[in-house]
Amino acid sequence: MHPLTVLNDRITACTACPRLVRYRNTVAAEKRKQYREWIYWGKPVPGFGDADAQLYVLGLAPAAHGGNRTGRVFTGDRSGDWLYDALHRHGFANQPLSHHKDDGLILTNCYIGASVRCAPPDNKPAPDEFEACRPYVREELRLLLNVKVVVTLGKVAFDQYLKACREEGCRLPSPLPAFGHAAIYPLPWNVTLIGSYHPSQQNTFTGKLTKPMFDTIFQEARRRLHV
Prior knowledge:
Blueprint: H1 3-12, H2 18-30, E1 48-49, E2 55-59, H3 67-70, H4 78-89, E3 110-114, H5 127-143, E4 149-153, H6 155-167, E5 184-187, E6 191-196, H7 201-206, H8 211-225
Parallel strand pairs: 2-3, 2-4, 4-6
Antiparallel strand pairs: 1-3, 5-6
Helix pairs in contact: 1-5, 4-8, 5-6
């Protein structure tokens, strides 16, 4: 069994954060009206993608009626629609759709993780929940041996990635990289960090993040990978 599969099994079985366990279970039981026929996943959501990936995409947390419903990161919500559409346009995904776990989506040279693996109330994990989940990010980074570019979706994921690297013993630059959309930082361990606004409805509906802006992120990732 691949070590990432073992890790994902551990993630799925995690009950470390009582608040998140209560919330994800409640959402899965009550459901949203349009998803009454769904059997919600209602568990931590593991990483997804190519085990040999050179591109690692790190988000915030599963959506209550997205990943918490479907069981796949960035699947079944508007943020996922934006992300997988962009990955498809730039050759990292075989299709632009992300409706459910068995919809045929395959990632090539890309792996997606989340800073917190359970859907949090109000989409806001608590500090101790970030702490409890960060070891999963760290282990993903250890197991994804070929990663050369990291795209973080939002400032929180940007900061969480740097914290994970510090805890792994990586020597962070001084001054510390500052988040910004399309901010690019070549890091001393031969990885390029790229910041992006999160493709949340708040950002996409208001025009803070547009499709051309999002395309810029993955164009740069592709260029840095020379593929």
